[in-house]
Amino acid sequence: MKPRRPAGPGRYPLSLRRHPVRWERQLPTWRQARPGVIAEALKRAQMRPTGNWYVVGASRDVRGDRPLSGTVSGHEIVVWRSADGRLVAGPGVCPHLGAPLADSPVRCGTLVCHWHGLALNGTPFAGWEPLPVHDDGVLVWVRLDPAGGEPPLEVPVVPERPQLSRSVAAVYRAVGVCEPEDVVANRLDPWHGAWFHPYSFVDLTVVSTPDVDGPGADGPGADGPGADGPGADGSGAEGPGEDGFTVDVSFKVAGRLVVPVRAVFTAPGPRTVVMRITEGEGRGSVVETHATPLGPDSQGRPRTAVVEAVLACSDRPGFAAARTAAPVLRRIMAAAAGRLWRDDLAYAERRWALRSTGRFPG
Description:
Layout: E1 15-16, H1 35-46, E2 53-58, E3 68-72, E4 75-81, E5 87-91, E6 106-107, E7 110-112, E8 119-120, E9 133-135, E10 139-143, H2 145-148, E11 168-176, H3 180-187, H4 193-196, E12 201-208, E13 245-254, E14 257-269, E15 272-280, E16 286-296, E17 302-312, H5 317-322, H6 326-356
């Protein structure tokens, strides 16, 4: 059954599926999910600049008493807040005897090594050099020029988002055995949604895809803040030069109750995919998927962190009241993202396993 094109918000956000189709009777999508289309979109994404910026985690996870820590491309890093609330970032190895600064507390804006008490206030000290860091209000980014190897940018290319004051933002993080390109390739395959995630998506139709030759690969916005494609301004506009996948899909609520929307998937960079709702309920809402390489595991296999930011908004008057329950909404949103990524990481890990042994089709 071809889904009805979603309209703008009506009186009720939910729709009733009149003629639901059983999972095994839905139209196969394997003919439409052409490997060449996905591969070319991935190739164009990999050519776009990042300025050596990597997403580390959620802004709200940088607390006043302990650092946010992680590994990016094999580099241990720590991020904490100074006494005036500014972000500070640097290597996660103590310059004295190599203690893990991730385990050290923050006192009055100073990171104090728990081995011998060496205090770091964010300025260079004994070979320890701070790293450029950026807080976009939802996510924390760190710039690692040795890892990225690109010409650096002063700030990361952050996709356009709904106003934070009028939305609810949740962040989910998971780690898989794969490379960033496997995570991005997963997101650039919208055809798998209703087959692989039937508990969340139904009645999925891919309305348009980028041409294999890549119109928009070198067009306006291909390497800048507008690179996240159609609908970036919430208009839902589509054109022949837009490098995005447009999808009509219904989010499953319960039984036959669904929320039909139109969404556009784009890749503004080699480690980022953005899904933006351009029509229907929640118009303007965004899901940003960021893939951050961590380094090899004990078996030498690559590990990648998926950091997904979900920013939900709505024109409905009741949404402002719902925002008062933001802590609860964030947990629900993160749980929903986690359920999807339990499957999608298996997809990405399988793709890497086949690529690494030369068995990947195509």
